[in-house]
């Protein structure tokens, strides 16, 4: 077995993250690649939350797919919600104390799901208790059921380790970690590594270690390690195991960010927390992480800081970005390098605040009154995002423009293994800076498109959101207006010339494809895996991955469309309108008439993408995917 | 030693385009004088302004000027000051800008006590959009630009500043330039968020709050023996309460001068410095982030910093 997929489910706030960490770290420590997506409600405690992971012995995976090999359930709701996600012959690990719990008695379950289950269970002939569902899985799907009485296990650990009963429920994560470890054959050393890492306090480690041992013993005796992964063939000297939020925070410290302003918003806020954790950079530096009263303050404080020369950014999501737009225009007008790290989530309005999406592309490209140059880049996976986050600041300072770095909730909350970054190749480019000792400094000197930038504190200078003269003073003269406007907008030509086409896109798969998926962002992981699977079925597929929207990879997409034919292009996106395909049309005149989209807030899974692409090849022009709880 | 700077050194050659007789002239004049008295280094001084008539102030002063967005001058000023605490930052902002569209920022700045000066041009109207009621115009008043009497109550700027936590709170009057100059100097010298509410007649749109109106009513708190200094933290609630009562005095007699000074609150910069040992020594704006184009975070340092995310394999 070289790939393992699992679902871990339970109530929000019930230790699911601990469980996921324990397993991810253990597999990573054993040399496997891991990607682990977290799906959760906008809720602190009680609603159904789950982790969906891929563990690979052959690669550092970026894809998620169904069915899974294991469903590990902390509660009955997980059994009902995910029983159908299991492959035939998979494993369900659950609390046998819940045997008689019926799906109709679960208050946290949404009515829609309960109604769907009612008819589904009727069809399957199950009575809707946990026991009946497990029995159905055993007899109809050859699923192996690992029923564990959590109550008995907790009593056992109370007894053995002298734990107060009220604290015992904290060990449920370790029960499931132990069970998954047993059937997937995680070795002692690797599990121990993650237990030690997670439970720093010695007594907690000891208790959890004991709990895991009890479970492993019980499960191994009965089931063996049937799902043991092959020895890993992934050859990297080291990995980072981190969420997208954390990776971007790390990248920002490397990029030299010295000021980050934010207002709490899901799924962006964790990045600022991580940055704050490292704010003193081992005592040598100072990153001011500034929690503001709203996003209006966040962007404008970040711009203020940028005027002093500090590399400066904000991290936000859709509703926050909407509030920032006026400030972004000021930065455009005043040629301020500021970076917006934009974590897309489901919109419009509050939309699906904890779910993912890619529906803010057009907004990030167009938002604002007036016209000014900006750069928009989008990252497809954890590794890309590390380098993109650094490039964002280099572009911002080189061209003295605001830069929007588009990521999304999927990336933000997904924990993945990526190769240790190579910092030797990273350049810090601060752009055209004014020398010291000038007299009569003009911030908006018209003698070059990129005026030499001085920082507040170096010279006397003025900035104004009004149209201004070379000094920054208000100037409404029509000729000055043209000169200043042209100077700003000419940056777009420079950007177009200087940022190479190859930087703006990546191409994967067949050079003579039967079908070309055109996508961006988190689509990448599923698309790359889909190419492999489609190839396996004799379909030559490829993926054209857009990494920059401004400047747009006009030439390459035009060339591909010409070579393979527009009718072989299909847009794959996490939004309703296939927004990137609209930008393709705007930039090239090429109309991609086919789309595969998903806007449920859940990521695109390989299996559904493969199906959708096959349907497109059979003549469908629009496929809407919907898999996932 | 550098030449002593005169008032003229603080003037730009930009034509001051306020209406003749505007109260803003008095504020600008007081600023020139205060800056000259303090010999502020023009390169190390930043005037941040908002939108409206008062927003133009930054263009008229020969120190760095950042003319920002309506309502957002405080966030700009905070970003500038926090990234480079060596700069002296003064904000000129209108009453609508500060207490209407930007009120959230006004409250938040008080909580932080960033070392800034906020000079509010309080003319009770939105001048540049032709005289609509501002948040400081009392209910029922009917300045000539309004089609109907004002329906909304006025906010109490001094009271709001007290409740928000400003540590230097004063009121000036645009026609008493010397008095205002002294307030501005004290506010600049104060460590922490300083707020000056400046009564500023709008000669074009507000025929109620005229020079004559204020001349008859204003009196100097300090001349009447008001001691604004909070002597100890314990004394603060009582002192603040008394200042609040003073702030409700109006119409008949309008107090100007310093209402409250609380030197016992750490500035925001000091709070950051508690967490960031090098913050004040090498502020964020001045710390090198590259050496010969390479990041200062070497691979070794990266591994030290982020070790908890890293797994290395034996080869």
Structure description:
- The complex is a heterodimer of chains A (629) and B (315).
- With 629 residues, chain A is an alpha/beta fold.
- Chain A has four domains: 3-223, Pyruvate-ferredoxin Oxidoreductase, domain 3 (3-Layer(aba) Sandwich), CATH 3.40.920.10; 241-419, Thiamin diphosphate (ThDP)-binding fold, Pyr/PP domains (Rossmann fold, 3-Layer(aba) Sandwich), CATH 3.40.50.970; 432-499, no CATH class; 503-625, Rossmann fold, CATH 3.40.50.
- In chain A, 41% of the residues lie in helices and 20% in strands.
- In chain A, helix 14 (382-399) links the parallel strand 12 (375-378) and strand 13.
- In chain A, helix 7 packs antiparallel against helix 8 (202-223).
- Chain A is globular and about 80 Å long.
- The mean pLDDT of chain A is 97.
- Chain B is of the alpha/beta class and 315 residues long.
- Chain B has one domain (7-270): Thiamin diphosphate (ThDP)-binding fold, Pyr/PP domains (Rossmann fold), CATH 3.40.50.970.
- In chain B, helix 1 (24-38) crosses helix 7 and helix 4 (95-101) crosses helix 5 (103-112).
- Chain B has helices at residues 24-38, 57-60, 73-83, 95-101, 103-112, 157-164, 177-189, 211-217, 236-247, 268-275, 299-305, and strands at residues 45-49, 64-67, 88-94, 117-122, 125-126, 132-133, 168-173, 194-199, 218-220, 254-261, 290-291, 294-295, 310-312.
- Helix content of chain B is 32%, strand content 18%.
- The mean pLDDT of chain B is 96.
- In chain B, the strands form three sheets. Chain B has an eight-stranded mixed beta sheet with strand order 2-1-3-4-8-7-10-9, with helices on both faces.
- Chain B contains eleven helices and 13 strands.
- At the A-B interface, helix 1, strand 7, helix 9, strand 8 and helix 11 of A face strand 2, helix 3, helix 5, strand 12 and helix 11 of B.
- Strand 7 of chain A pairs antiparallel with strand 13 of chain B.
